[in-house]
Amino acid sequence: MMRILVLLLCLMPVFGYAGEAKDLAEDPVLEKRMIGLAEKLRCLVCQNESLASSHAELAEDLRREVREQMKKDKTDQEIIDYLVARYGDFVLYDPPMKNYTILLWFGPFALLLGGAGALIYQLRKRRQTVPEISLSVEAQQRAAALLNQDKDNQA
Amino acid sequence: MMRFILPFIVFIVLAFFLFRGLSLDPREVPSPLVGKPAPAFSLPQLQVPTKQFSSQDMKGKVWLLNVWASWCVSCVQEHPVLVELARQNIVPIYGLDYKDKSADALTWLSRGGNPYVLTVSDTDGRIGIDYGVYGVPETYVIDKQGVIQYKQIGPVTPQNLQEKILPLVAELEKK
Question: Would you identify the CATH topology of the domain A20-96?
């Protein structure tokens, strides 16, 4: 008897959890599609969270709105347009290519190219300022002698 | 010489951008609705729920639409500014009570004074979504043609009232 009671108590959190996912149960396919879309959208209240993960009240309302529009057979693009018309491109995690986002899209590549260019320029310049010096046989022998002397000293 | 000038220029450019970043508010998302017709709505009035108020009724007038709620913290700060503005009788202020309980909203108005010609109740926040509301309070300046000319995100302060809203209202009135 006691064992069954303990077992039932252990199962309690499971029941508690099932209560929260009520929306999912209504229409799992639609919910999955909604979450998929909402993950690409930014919550405006807590700006570093997606619409899918945010617990802000506005996010809940917007998820409801997305859900309802999906029920009305709107396409994902139509829903995105609907939200962009109200909240601007800011809601998109994937910013569109526009005049004012050119720097955002190509800035890093421009920096990379600039950096590579500067590096090549510097390397070329260095090669010019430090020319290869060819030693005469005599000088090479002297150098070898000096190096050996150095080795002897160390020993 | 170049060795010093180039890093200096890079430093100046970087410092400029970083300094600029200090005065930018990431919470302020520019509204795509500025310059567009204000979304039409017809909602029950807060004081007389049986009566509807429609945004179409305001055609031909310059007006302010102030989104507020009794649960909104910054609205407390904004409220006296609006009461004072209403007293001056420069521009009519209409309220949109956003996701609020009517009883709470009425208590709130009776406590702080009512600057609104009337307030409508947007209980489930749908009209708020149409207006792109994401943080209460927000205030919209709407012109005679029903076009949104300005959106104030966050509380209206005496400063932005003097610098932005009132000059804009005066200009729109002349049109």
Answer: Helicase, Ruva Protein; domain 3 (1.10.8)
